[in-house]
Amino acid sequence: MSKQKIAFGKIVGAHGVKGELKVLPYIEKEEMDGLLSDLKGLLEEFFIEDVPYEVKGIKRHKGVFLVKLREVRRRDEAEALVGKEVFVERDSLPALPEGEYYAFELIGLNVVTEENRPVGILSHIFSTGSNDVYEVKTPDGGELLLPAIEDVIVSVEPERGRIVVRLPEGL
Q1: Structural domain boundaries of the chain?
Q2: What is the mean pLDDT of residues 110-123?
Q3: Looking at residue 39, what is its pLDDT?
Q4: What is the C-alpha separation between 105 and 96, in angstroms, rounded?
Q5: Residue 91: what pLDDT?
Q6: What is the pLDDT of residue 127?
Q7: With the C-alpha atoms ordered 84, 89, 23, 26, is the resulting torsion angle positive or negative?
Q8: Which residue in 97, 2, 107, 100 sits closest to 45, CA to CA?
Q9: CATH topology assigned to domain 5-92
Q10: CA angle 166, 27, 19 (to 5 degrees)
Q11: What local confidence, expressed as pLDDT, does residue 29 receive?
Q12: What is the pLDDT, as a whole number, of residue 11?
């Protein structure tokens, strides 16, 4: 039985002559620092086009992760991977406290009202100083920005593929 793989990021460049990869992660910048220390002990493999690669090293560098894979030894080998998505096994990521989710777990969820009326699909999460803001693509092609606060977000139910919201008056 294969384990669930999730998109971790995209290879956006090569770094140096020994085949390090620049990986732009699909996580918010604020999550990167705490996640990096956890990843060093947990993340042993990346999957690129379903091929496993052994992670030999990972560090943060200017908004990306620099990743050294055992199988990629030269710059030209790294450059051949630019543009490809990197996947990890879901179980290799650190567990979060109850009620907290990685952004990738929420992106793509249906957003509905308490009355189960469709609002749209969560497409992006912005981090602000005080709270996150959810960008929702509406069925008519527009977008709606919702503050991720208790008064608006009623429940987050990834197992049901949805987020239940209470729309602020006027929306």
Answers
A1: 5-92, 103-165
A2: 96
A3: 60
A4: 12
A5: 79
A6: 76
A7: positive
A8: 2
A9: Elongation Factor Tu (Ef-tu); domain 3 (2.40.30)
A10: 165
A11: 54
A12: 96
Rounded Cα distance, 58 and 36, in Å: 8
Residue with tokens 């496993």: 52
pLDDT tens digits, residue range 155-171? 999 989 999 999 988 76
Q: Please give the helix or strand (H or E) that residue 147 lies within, else none.
A: strand 143-147
Q: Is the pTM of this model over 0.85?
A: no
Other C-beta atoms closer than 10 Å to the C-beta of 103 total 16
Q: H/E element holding 117?
A: none
CA 117 to chain CA centroid, Å, is 27
- pLDDT at position 1 is 43
Homologous superfamily, domain 103-165: PRC-barrel domain (2.30.30.240)
Instruction: Give the three-state DSSP class for 1.
Output: coil
Q: Which amino acid, residue 22?
A: K
What's the rounded mean pLDDT across residues 82-98? 84
Degrees (nearest 5) of the Cα angle 91, 92, 96? Answer: 75
DSSP category for residue 158 = G
78: nearest Cα among 23, 22, 19, 12: 19
